[in-house]
Each structure stands twice: as C-alpha cells, then as structure tokens.
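A student in our group prepared the protein record below, which I am reviewing. This is what I was given:
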Amino acid sequence: MISVGLDIQRLGLMVVMGQPKTTAEYIQATSRVGRDDAKPGLVITLLNAHKPRDRSHYERFRHYHETFYRAVEAGSVTPFAARALDRGMAGALVGLARHAEPALTLATGPTALEQVRSGLERLLVDAFSERVGRQHLPEEERDERLHGIHKRVGDLLDSWLHVVADYQASGVQVKYQQHERAQGKPLLREMLDDDFETPHHEKLRANRSLRDVEPQVNLFVPGPTGGAG
C-alpha cells in the first residue's frame, strides 16, 4: 500500500504483518518510517509461525536483515525493447563513443563528432549488433532488432550533431554532463528534465540513477463535500 516515494516525516512506527513476498517490497515499505533524522523509526515484524517461509525468516532474522540487500530481486527488462531503448540507448551510445574514439574522450569532446562520425557509426552499430546477436531469437525478430539498432544509432548521432550546432550558434560551449565542468551546457540531459529546446535535445536523455522513472505528480484528495481535502 505504501512504498517508493512516500516521504512523510512524522511516520515513525510500522507493523509488518507477515513477511512480504519479495525482499525489495519489504525494504521499500519499511523504509517509509524514520525519515526524520531527529526522530528514530521503529518497525515491528509479526511473523506467522504456521507458514514455513515466515518461520525461516524468524530463525535467520538477524543474518537476513544484515544482508538483505543481496537478496533484492533483479528487475525485469526485455533487452532491446522499444521503451528500454528510449531510456537507455542514448547514455550507452555516448559512453561507448567516448571510450572508443580519443577525439571524443575529453569533456569538450562532443564538438568533435562531425570529424569522426563515419568510422564511429560503423563501430557503434557493430558493437550493439554483436550484443543483439548473443540473444536466442528467431531470425525474423533478430533481423528486425538489428535494423532498429542501426536506425537508432544514426538517429542519435544526427541529434548529437544538431544539439552541438544549436549550442555553438548561441556561442555556448558543449560538455557531456551537467556537472562535468563549470562552463557550457550538457549534451546529455536528465531523464526527468522537461525544458527541451528541440526534440533533438529530448532524445539525448540518460538516467543518472535507476530510480529515475517518472516525474513527480500532484495528488489531490477530495474532502467529504467534494472539495480538495
């Protein structure tokens, strides 16, 4: 019922009735209390003696809580799905390009793409295609993903050049990340940014954390008479 994102400072006590099905759920739910540094939080876990799983957690209570982060379940992601590529392709492409081409490595390197693009594009397509080739896929589906990867690589490099040109036309220096150097504007934007100058800027978004999922939303609870509570 309550999990990630609920930060109410006054919550200080929680009772957990039975061991949740996943460790990730257990950690996130119980982390909602004790959010105030000046006030401690207390979590009381009531386990069911008639359930083997609950008994196991009771018998190994201390060890489990000292090491439960290693028991967090892996997130489910379909490799090269369209939405996964929307979120991860730009960061992976820019990172690989910086490592593969010395002219792009420095913080001021984004402007050098035009001089090295032809060879770099082939290298990037080969690298991502090799990763697709490791999957056990029907031939038709594999060919479709390879075509999509080739198209995305070219599209992202086009957007990279457009962003550099836009900044240079305004007399602004270009850097890769927001905090990489004091001057200039970043090529890679935050996943939760919403003030994009053009669609090209929006394509070059990269997660700084796997917690960057969706922007915040306002929640309005109606009162008894229908107005905002």
